[in-house]
Amino acid sequence: MYLDVKPLHKPVERRRHQRVEVTLLGRYMLADKREFPCVTTDMSPGGLSCIASVRGAIGERIVVYLDQIGRVEGAIVRYTDRGFALSLGLPYSKRERIANQLTWLVNRDILGLPEDRASERIVPLRQHSVLTVDGEAEHIVKLIDVSVTGVAVATQLKPAIGTRAKIGQTTGSVVRHFDGGFAVAFDRMLDGDRFDENIKL
User: Which CATH number fits domain 6-111: 2.40.10.220, 2.40.30.170, 3.40.50.10490, 3.40.50.720?
Assistant: First the structure.
């Protein structure tokens, strides 16, 4: 009797690369070198889904830089309602490192552990800045934390995902809401040489 053993292997592979819900700000570069902000909705060592304003072509290879993960490369495999899904082509050692990072991020959220801000995010000394949404009225907001790719602000405003925003002189797009504020992904990554507590956006 013929026995197809493939289904026995697939669940093992899915468990090894199980996607977890994780929100990470980042940037991606399409094949034509254009760069755009993004934010992940879920990720595994083998792939990720993200909210993105500009979709590349199916099969297009792109580069993504994510907070707390770093640089990854892969190919666009399908479109989603608000962006696209990416299949990551990474060497074994980097897949293992990402698996460990994702495990830490998930456990941090479950256990309520503090974020590792020392290398990825900072709390600026100037904690207030001027926010302009869609080029309209200015609002004074509190900066919760800043990374090289984005900022979280405390405010009662809730602009729609994708809304253009300007924090001080730094422009970007709204990518995520949370209780008491929202996150903005910058149009350009901040200069690492000036990325410290004295930063002024």
Answer: 2.40.10.220
Percent of the chain with pLDDT over 70: 84
What is residue 109's predicted lDDT score, i.e. its pLDDT? 56
CATH domain 128-194 topology: Thrombin, subunit H (2.40.10)
Quickly list DSSP for 134-159. TT--EEEEEEEEE-SSEEEEE-S--P
**Would you state the structure tokens that stand for residue 83, as one six-digit string?**
């962006």
**Quick check: 199 pLDDT over 80?**
yes
Sole residue written with tokens 């949370």: 178
Q: Is 120 buried (19+), middle (13-18) or exposed (0-12) by CB count in 10 A?
A: middle
63, 71 in Cβ contact below 8 A? yes
